[in-house]
Amino acid sequence: MKKVKVFITLKESVLDPQGQAVMQSLHNMDYQNVKDVRIGKYIELEMEDSADVAEQVDAICDKLLANTVIENYRYEIEEEVHS
Amino acid sequence: MKKVKVFITLKESVLDPQGQAVMQSLHNMDYQNVKDVRIGKYIELEMEDSADVAEQVDAICDKLLANTVIENYRYEIEEEVHS
């Protein structure tokens, strides 16, 4: 089995109102040293081994997980160790 | 400046209906080899340097970003390089 960690982030040029709201809350809580907040998604997939896992993850991100007009994605594939 | 990457995930024992819905969609798209999907949050904070950044991030996660009853969090603190 493979464990795939997918990180989806808004592109630099896209406004992040959710992140701005969180930053405002942090400022209200006296964390003035927080200068920027960007909120994305973190998705863990558990997949059966196959030769083309990376290609499949690319396709899954492009088709379903990410909106590539406004979001970037990157991923890490790890071998899952069963004890 | 420090760049802090925060990963928030549901605890193992907590059901993830959003992840199950994504997995069902992937199965409908013929990705039968996806055996589990868990959906979390990925948050990037940009913070001014200070001696207690790690403590501050812990407090921020506990108080605002994560619901520690059902979620775990971890984070990485990186030095931000300005070119």
From TrEMBL, chains A, B:
Which EC numbers characterise this protein's activity in its record? Answer: 6.3.5.3
Main localisation: cytoplasm
Q: How does it assemble?
A: Part of the FGAM synthase complex composed of 1 PurL, 1 PurQ and 2 PurS subunits.
Query: A Gene Ontology CC term for this entry?
Result: cytoplasm
A single Pfam family it belongs to is PurS
Family annotation (NCBIfam families): phosphoribosylformylglycinamidine synthase subunit PurS, PRK05974.1
The organism is: Sporolactobacillus shoreae
Print the organism lineage: Bacteria, Bacillati, Bacillota, Bacilli, Bacillales
Full protein name = Phosphoribosylformylglycinamidine synthase subunit PurS
One Gene Ontology molecular-function label: ATP binding
Q: Which family does it belong to?
A: Belongs to the PurS family.
